[in-house]
Amino acid sequence: MMCGFFDLKVIESMSAPEISLSSASPSQNQFLPFVSNNSTKKYLFYVTLSYAFGVLRPIEEALKKKGHDIAWFIPKGAEAEPYIQNNDVLFQTVEQVKHYASDAVLAPGNYIPDFFPGIKVQVFHGFDSGKKNKFNIRGFFDLYCTQGPNITEAFNRINDGTCEVKETGWSKLDPLFLEHPDKSLYESDEPVVLYAPTFSPKLTSTYDLVEQIRAATVSQNWRWLVKLHPKATKEEIALFKSLECANLRFIETSNVIPLLQAADVLVSDTSSILAEFALQQKPVVAFKNRRPEEWMINFQEPELLINKIDFALQQDPDVLAKIEQHCAHIHPYRDGGSSRRVINAIDDLIDSGIGHFKRKPLNLVRRFKIRKKLKYFGIR
């Protein structure tokens, strides 16, 4: 099938050269060296996967309004590296990080280098999707900025006194409540279906649903957007790129907000993106979800995909009511101010210090793995 409607593929990526400007030619992208503007606090963002940008960019914007300094640490060769921007202050060595001496380090992932200067802040990379080990205090973070009552309550139950838990809302969703300028790139007069599966081999729907999606591009007058997880395999990427046609567009981007806004229905499996999408009061279709809930449109057999999407497009009032009830529990904040609350919580902890916390567990195996990955074996 020839491509027509979705001829243009939007790829938000850039090359990522060395931070040193002395060795870069004028034609190369060049990253700015760090120059302090004498603001009161310095923030460092620790990033390895591209989804982190969606979580951290809103915080960055709010920090700039307060006059704080911001830098990024991305290990060389990390999946997130191509998505850094030219005007970002980028560090790729531990020595640079030590010299910067941040007041706080933020990470959307589950781990963070304990030897980086500053308090360590977990800002989460997704909602609770029913995967294992979602709620776990691993001894790496001083502050957990939770999204809503359900996660706050879960972390408060297991808080061992080594950290602080503050409910702030999720920074990634601040832009969700304001129309993104790129939304129009993905809109259509026909229904738009976003397919965004998880990466876990045991939970992903990629191989189960690929042929059903292929068939739907022929039999249904829908427009498909396919956004795979950053950890998707090369085989999965090639498989879904091969489906590109007039009715299906494969998207590579670090920012899913315009996709969420443009789509009428989301198809996924056991992924936290289901909850993100539902916050817009839109229906989600979940294949073999590990923890199926009433606000989802669940199914177990691949052959039911088209039927379930068709039902979702009908906007059933009972389904929408269940979505609203669920959203109030996971993320009641619709003011777009979660980034501001995150910064206030961090600033408060920086000012008060962490001397009142209990000593964190050693977790020597994980600490060694981080040091090995970053080629740093200092004690502090």
Task: Give a short overview.
With 380 residues, the chain is of the alpha/beta class. It has 11 helices and 13 strands.
Write up what this structure looks like.
The protein has helices at 51-66, 94-100, 149-158, 206-219, 234-241, 257-262, 273-278, 305-312, 317-330, 338-352, 364-374; strands at 42-46, 69-73, 90-91, 104-107, 119-122, 143-146, 164-167, 192-195, 223-226, 248-250, 265-268, 284-287, 297-299. Helix 1 packs across helix 10. It has 380 residues and is of the alpha/beta class. It has eleven helices and 13 strands. It has a seven-stranded parallel sheet with strand order 3-2-1-4-5-6-7. A six-stranded parallel sheet has the order 10-9-8-11-12-13. Residues 1-34 have low confidence and may be disordered.
Q: Give, in order, the helices and strands.
A: EHEEHEEEHEEHEHEHEHEEHHHH
Largest sheet: 7 strands, parallel
Question: How many helices?
Answer: 11
Name the shape in a single word. Answer: globular
Low-confidence spans: 1-34
Distance separating the two termini: 58 Å
**Topology, number of strands:** 13
Share of helix, binned: 25-40%
Helix/strand/pairing category:
alpha/beta
What is the topology, as strand order, of the major beta sheet? 3-2-1-4-5-6-7
- Which strand-content bin applies to the residues? 5-15%
- Mean pLDDT over the full residue set: 88
